[in-house]
């Protein structure tokens, strides 16, 4: 070790080496002033690892020319490279410690895990290049070639395989798309970084040790699928186990699913495929491959992107988690795969510069526009409501790759989808398919994007909106992106741990959620979560006091106030204060926040003195809840909850007469709408399409009419 430190000292004394070192350290320090890289965690570590994997090769080659050959010199260069991280790391720690509430050492483990192996590999390659070259340009070519080989090894399984995660010996690791907040050092990452270290020693050690390290490296790479840093089609199909093929697609699903569940999934995917064909006006050639995962954890382990659904259009495949029936995003993801023939090669998406610069706003906007979801509001209503709340992103900017990812995901997707749906309705689908080639609006429409977006924004002013819709939009879109929320990675991890500890260690869960509140004091969700944890601990009065203070703070924000009021009303019931609960439910109704809040408040208000109704909203055995509801009388609240529970348990034939009979009563609009939806779903499940048509009294239910006609022709 003394010899290594001596050689580091020798290198530092050299002017050229110091110039390289200062350059790398300065660039790394500048990263810390960019919000995305300001915390000493995953993003900063990834940025510096990429810096070492590219420019670090130059410093390593230059330094190696000044030292004798040998492992000690390689280690000295690696230490010098790694030390360029220190100024940025110290600056980020200091700024985090004194300028934000975030934990400066949260996720700091990514720094050594990502930086040190890359520094060692860059030192080993740089030393090899220095031995074989005398001039700068052959050295540059060899370094670029080495980096290129690493890029090919990384990109090959991504481009020609199903995985979304990225493992690269030069630039480290990425878990998949940007939207997963909880990023951790996993066993698969540690195995991969061990492979990087073995490769570095294989390049820099004497023959026997080099052979041993090279063998270890090859063994790890060959077992990459088993170790979790590689994936291929055969292994993924074997891991899921189930497979079914239709004329339109090949579905891979978990082998534990029963025949009824598989048939439901196949029917759902076939229906959504047919809807997309109708939207495009033509069926694409070939079959789509659908990978269906049981849970986010399974998806993260197998391919990455735990909570993000994704498609690979150039492979005509989609990857989705199981969200139940009907699946809320399968239609969206199918659009990506089915639209590939109209996109630019090689990736089959809207992309400029010969197909190499994807236009994300157009890519995602087309999928949302074709999906055209109608849940509580239409696409245009969501966008118009955002505009009224000053939450609508700049439309022209959102249609660019950088602008799309800079906006909060929920706002970006809704805005891009509404805009392209507007263009499809006003200019036709053919021009929309033409736009998908390269994202050039002026070429496709003969009008600049700025003019099209201005016309669209003016159109939004004509969309009629109820006050309730504006409040719904605020509740849905108020959260900023992961890059805007303070300490987003830390809060994402803590929130996940709260759920893990809630049942087994509620006191630990409370400590975690208290930390979330400290990091994001303006986020009402953390207060509600802490109140629920206190309730779990039996500290009902403490939870009530906490929520009373929160209700005062949220007095001018209807949506979060109403959510807090519902939880506080539950606590009032437990305290025996039924009158306080009634006041809160009435106030929540008056806020006109959303049909869901209105419906829940009305049901609770009517059943305030019924144990069966109050028990329905607590955790407990479904069978006991059913028994309690059956014996609770014929109040509307009881009949509605009984029908809803039977429908949730897939007792369709029992639920249907209860729900249809309830529709003959005078119901508040929010309750009538949900009862009708539940009845339509139950009627579909029993194959009664005539009843589905009779019940589908609003455009929002047209999807069920079409689904039933498709399933039961």
TrEMBL record:
UniProt xrefs under Gene3D superfamilies: Tetratricopeptide repeat domain
TM spans (from-to): 20-39, 45-64, 71-94, 106-125, 137-159, 183-202, 209-229
Protein name (Swiss-Prot/TrEMBL): Tetratricopeptide repeat protein
Organism: Archangium gephyra
Key words, A-Z: Membrane, Transmembrane, Transmembrane helix
The keyword Transmembrane helix is annotated on this UniProt entry: yes
């Amino acid at each position: 070790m003394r010899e290594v430190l001596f050689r580091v000292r020798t290198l530092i004394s050299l002017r050229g080496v110091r110039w390289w070192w200062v350059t790398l350290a300065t660039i790394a320090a500048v990263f810390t002033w960019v919000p995305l890289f300001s915390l000493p965690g995953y993003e900063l570590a990834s940025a510096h690892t990429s810096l070492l994997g590219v420019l670090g090769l130059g410093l390593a080659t230059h330094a190696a020319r000044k030292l004798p050959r040998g492992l000690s010199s390689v280690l000295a260069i690696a230490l010098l490279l790694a030390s360029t991280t220190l100024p940025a790391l110290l600056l980020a720690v200091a700024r985090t410690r004194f300028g934000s509430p975030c934990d400066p050492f949260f996720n700091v483990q990514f720094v050594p895990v990502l930086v040190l192996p890359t520094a060692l590999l860059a030192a080993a390659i740089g030393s090899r290049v220095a031995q074989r070259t005398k001039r700068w340009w052959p050295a540059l070519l060899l370094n670029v070639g080495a980096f290129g080989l690493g890029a090919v090894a990384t990109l090959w399984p991504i481009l020609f395989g199903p995985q979304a995660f990225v493992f690269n010996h030069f630039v480290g690791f990425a878990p998949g798309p940007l939207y997963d907040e909880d990023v951790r050092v996993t066993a698969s990452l540690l195995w991969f970084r061990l492979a990087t270290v073995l490769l570095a020693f294989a390049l820099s050690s004497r023959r026997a040790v080099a052979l041993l390290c090279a063998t270890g490296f090859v063994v790890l790479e060959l077992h990459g699928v088993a170790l979790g840093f590689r994936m291929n089609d055969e292994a993924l199909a074997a891991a899921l186990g189930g497979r079914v093929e239709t004329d339109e697609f090949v579905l891979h699903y978990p082998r534990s699913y029963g025949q009824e569940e598989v048939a439901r999934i196949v029917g759902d995917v076939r229906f959504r495929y047919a809807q997309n064909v109708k939207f495009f006006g033509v069926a694409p050639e070939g079959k789509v491959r659908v990978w269906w995962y049981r849970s986010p954890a399974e998806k993260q382990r197998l391919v990455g992107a735990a909570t993000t659904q994704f498609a690979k259009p150039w492979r005509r495949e989609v990857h989705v988690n199981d969200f139940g029936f009907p699946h809320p995003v399968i239609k969206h993801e199918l659009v990506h795969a089915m639209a590939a023939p109209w996109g630019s090669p090689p990736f089959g998406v809207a992309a400029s510069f010969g197909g190499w610069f994807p236009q994300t706003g157009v890519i995602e906007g087309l999928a949302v526009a074709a999906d055209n979801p109608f849940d509580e509001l239409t696409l245009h209503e969501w966008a118009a409501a955002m505009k009224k709340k000053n939450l609508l992103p700049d439309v022209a900017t959102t249609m660019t790759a950088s602008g799309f990812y800079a906006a909060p995901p929920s706002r970006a997707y809704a805005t891009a989808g509404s805009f392209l749906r507007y263009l499809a309705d006003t200019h036709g689908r053919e021009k929309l398919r033409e736009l998908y080639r390269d994202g050039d609006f002026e070429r496709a429409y003969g009008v600049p994007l700025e003019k099209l977006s201005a016309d669209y924004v003016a159109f939004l002013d004509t969309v009629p909106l109820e006050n309730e819709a504006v409040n719904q939009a605020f509740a849905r879109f108020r959260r900023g992106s992961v890059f805007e929320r303070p300490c987003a990675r830390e809060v994402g991890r803590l929130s996940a741990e709260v759920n893990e500890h809630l049942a087994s260690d509620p006191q630990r869960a409370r400590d975690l959620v208290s930390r979330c509140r400290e990091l994001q004091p303006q986020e009402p969700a953390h207060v509600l979560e802490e109140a629920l944890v206190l309730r779990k601990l039996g500290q009902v009065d403490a939870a009530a006091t906490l929520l009373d203070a929160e209700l005062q703070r949220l007095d001018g924000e209807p949506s979060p106030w109403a959510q807090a009021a519902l939880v506080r009303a539950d606590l009032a019931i437990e305290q025996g204060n039924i009158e306080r609960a009634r006041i809160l439910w009435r106030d929540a109704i008056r806020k006109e926040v959303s049909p869901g809040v209105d419906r829940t408040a009305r049901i609770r208000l009517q059943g305030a003195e019924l144990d069966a109704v109050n028990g329905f909203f607590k955790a407990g055995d479904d069978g006991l809840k059913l028994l309690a509801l059956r014996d609770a009388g014929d109040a509307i609240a009881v009949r509605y909850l009984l029908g809803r529970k039977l429908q949730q348990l897939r007792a369709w034939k029992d639920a249907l007469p209860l729900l249809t009979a309830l529709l003959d009563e005078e119901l508040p609009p929010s309750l009538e709408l949900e009862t009708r939806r539940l009845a339509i779903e139950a009627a579909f499940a029993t194959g009664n399409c005539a009843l589905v048509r009779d019940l589908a009294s609003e455009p929002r239910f047209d999807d069920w009419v079409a689904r039933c006609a498709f399933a039961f022709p």
